[in-house]
Each structure stands twice: as structure tokens, then as C-alpha cells.
Amino acid sequence: MSLSTAITTWGNTYFALGNNGRSRFYSHGFLPTHLKIKFSTNNPSPLSVSALLTTKQQTDESKNKKKQAMEFNDYVLEKANSVNRALESSVLIKEPVKIHESMRYSLLAGGKRIRPMLCIASCELVGGDESIAMPAACAVEMIHTMSLIHDDLPCMDNDDLRRGKPTNHKIYGEDVAVLAGDALLALAFEHIATRTKGVPSHRIVRVVGELAKCIGAEGLVAGQVVDIISEGVSDVDLKHLEFIHLHKTAALLEGSVVLGAILGGADDEEVEKLRKFARCIGLLFQVVDDILDVTKSSQQLGKTAGKDLVADKVTYPKLIGIDKSREFAEELNKEAQAQLAGFDQEKAAPLIALANYIAYREN
Asked: Sign (positive/negative) of CA torsion 218, 222, 226, 229?
């Protein structure tokens, strides 16, 4: 599904109901049609009146869902445009021209901008605003772009297509592609340190440390290395696979959310709740990615489909099948949203909607 469709949970209120440690969620004010109950009109009880779902209520519910979807779409467009403008101005064409062109080619190639949106939304959730979070939001997108450039190289995944375009090394060569990724990584930290305004210096230092940890040898790089050495290995189990994805994919999504929370002034308890939320949606993102890799075409994905199968990589569908993978994705989404139950639900609405987008995306 595209960002402009199907997210109809904007503004809904969710409640976590403990049940042996597992979260269950119900959206306030909606009773499925198949649960409608007809009562006698003679002496109707308060229960019968409250349980009856009228045609007007159904109509109002439908209108409300459409309104919520439109509001989320507006939010996405607004934030994506803001992020794109900030990224455009962050890397200008100057000498050496080739390296800056290469950086811009991948950084401005499109994409969903999920990580920057998560950073901004978490900052706004705890009382901050977009301007405070924007430098960090750009930084996580720079690092994400770096990881894609390097991941596509012949020595890694050897891919020719990214976001519907030739990969960076196909245009600029492997040598420049490596250096473009390196430059974006360095620029990310410079951008946070020099462009973040209106935030106490100790928060900026904490953000820099958090970001470095989530992408280094204990984070993204760790997941990438274990992924590489696991290719062709037949006895990989779920715990091993979870390690790969929690580090390779979830770590930067976690960093995106946590950076925004820190910059927005969240206390330690709020940061940890948002960290758990981000860890769940990070793993969710990869589970869905694994499913899409075997169920969608290259044209639909904007990148090469089926490459994990060709490389004999371990994936969730390979280990537990498509249906169980989808069930696991649903559980992760529910668990993620459980972490937001204690926050202002109106402010949490963008994060709830983004979690649902990650769960039900189609590319």
C-alpha cells in the first residue's frame, strides 16, 4: 500500500490489555458488522441500546476513517516535503563535483523517508518540534542512504537497482560509490553537531553517542557482518535471524525514534518505551521486507525481487513460512503500539499510523 492510502488508524485511541504478558489492542468506538445484535423493541434495556450499531453510526465511522486517512496523508506529505527540502540544502554541488553529485544522486533519489518521519514524530510526541529534530532526521537518512550504497556494491549484495533507478556504483563506479557512502556518514554527524539549535549541548552529545552506537560494530555493522557470514548456512535458527535483523535493520529505526525523543526532552522512562516501540517496528520492517521479497516483483518493489533466495539468505518466510511470518508481523505491530499506550494519543497518532504503514506496506 502507498503512503497515500489505507492508513485509517490516524487519531484512534488504543488500549493495551495484559494477557499473560501479551498485548491486545482494540480501537475505541468500532464494533464489527458481524457482531451486530438485534433486540426486541419492547422495553429495550440500556445494554440493547448501547450495543446496537445504527446505520448512522456506521456512516459516521466510515467518514471518520476517511478523514483520518486524509489527515495522515497530509502529515506524510508535509513532513516528506520538509525533509526533502532540508536534504536538498544539506549537500550542494561543489568541488570535487563528482563526489557531491554521487552523494546527491542517492540521497535525493526518493524513498519513503520513514526514518526522518519517525525522528520528527517522536520529538513532537514528547513536546519538541520539527525544527529541533530536523538535523537529526536528515542525519539518519544520510546514514540510511550510505548503508544502501554500500549494501548494493558487488562485494556485498551486488544489486543493480535501487528505488527504481540504477544503483550508485552503476553510475559513478565502485570507488566513488564507496567514498560517497563514507562522506554521507561523516556528514551525518557534522550535520547534527553544527545544525541543531535550541537544544542543550548535553542532549546533542547524547544523540551523537546514541547514533554512533546504533550503526557501529554493536549495531548496523554487526547485523550486516552476521548476515554475510550466514549465507548458505543451513542450521540458522530464529534467534540467529532475529539478531541479524535487530542489528542490520532495526538499529537505525530505533536510533531514529530515540534521537527524536532525546532532542524533544523525553525523560529516561519515555525514551525506553519509545526504544521498545522502535525495536518492534524495526524488526517488523524486516519481516515485511522478507515477505515482500518473495511475493512482489522487481517493478513493484523498485529493487531486485527474490535476491535473498538467489543468495541463499535465511529469511523469516524461509524458516517459518509466509503465513507464520505474517502472524509474527501482526504481533510485532501490536507489541509496538502497546508501548505508546501511556502517551497522549493525539500526539502519538503519527507513530501509530507509521507503525501500521510499515506493517501493511506493499513495497
From this structure: negative
* Cis preceding-peptide flag for 96 (omega within 30 of 0): yes
Query: C-alpha cell of 312?
Result: 541463499
Query: What is the β-pairing status of strands 14-16 and 25-27?
Result: antiparallel
**What's the topology of domain 86-358?**
Farnesyl Diphosphate Synthase (1.10.600)
Neighbours of 201 (CB within 10 A): 9
DSSP 8-state code for residue 154: T
Beta bridge partners of 166: 161
Q: Return d(Cα 323, Cα 287) in angstroms, integer.
A: 12
pTM of the model: 0.79
Helix segments in the chain, DSSP class H: 46-51, 55-90, 97-107, 114-125, 130-151, 168-172, 174-195, 201-215, 220-229, 238-248, 250-264, 268-295, 298-301, 307-310, 316-338, 345-360
Residue linked to cell 526522518: 116
pLDDT per residue as tens, the chain (363 positions): 444 433 344 444 333 333 344 433 333 333 333 333 333 344 544 444 455 455 555 565 566 556 666 677 888 889 999 999 999 999 999 999 999 999 999 999 988 899 999 999 999 999 999 999 999 999 999 999 999 999 999 999 899 999 889 999 999 999 999 999 999 999 999 999 999 999 999 999 999 999 999 999 999 999 999 988 888 787 888 999 999 999 999 999 999 999 999 999 999 999 999 999 999 999 999 999 999 988 866 665 555 655 565 556 788 998 999 999 999 999 999 999 999 999 999 999 999 999 999 999 887
- Ordered by start, the domain boundaries in the chain are 86-358
User: Exposure of 249 by Cβ count < 10 A (0-12 exposed, 13-18 middle, 19+ buried)?
Assistant: buried
Q: Give 285's DSSP letter.
A: H
